[in-house]
Amino acid sequence: MEKNGTMGKMNTINYNTAKDLSLVSCEICNSLYDINSFKDQEKAKCHVCGLELHQRKPNSISRTWALLLTSAICYIPANIYPVMVIDTFGNVEAHTIISGVIAFIHSKDYPLALLVFFASIFIPIMKMLSLMILLISVQFEWKWGPGQRNTIYKIVEFIGKWSMVDIFMISILMALVKLGTIVTIVAGKGATFFGLVVFFTMIAASTFDVRLVWDNAVIKDK
Asked: Rounded to two decimals, what is the model's pTM?
């Protein structure tokens, strides 16, 4: 690694990625290979576990965009249709995500209101926006803050599974309420669409190749 510039100023660091050095690692067993050692590089396979080797995930950008747009489309009916339907003595109440938050606030169940708000509204929207920013930054070859963008990706990947808290809560309520014809709780169409939102965003995060962030990065050293 070389450093260019004047001492005391912000210097640019020249560095080589594994791709620059024609190296590729197996995503399963982490075996390292020189991609030039394979006659057919497009069909290169790991000698240890047999997985196909790619320096970057194939069609990562297009697949991630497709999954992200699908999740955004599913998020619309997830908020329009009820996620939970409560039938009490024949009095049916259908709650969407937003109306559920409002109902918890009116009943002064503030912790539950915050839980549903963050799990079902804040986190999914931030995940989709974060992935969109990452995709745009790669396509337009942004050079700023690769470390920060890498952190954003790690956060998106980590919090993905917590987006299902709302669905888990409905499932628990359905399991606990066993009063037959007196009270009945069932999941609405909104719960199905919300589950699809979580599923597609999680897959989108896994198809995005975060290494693309570093391909055009400029690293600075103080």
From this structure: 0.77
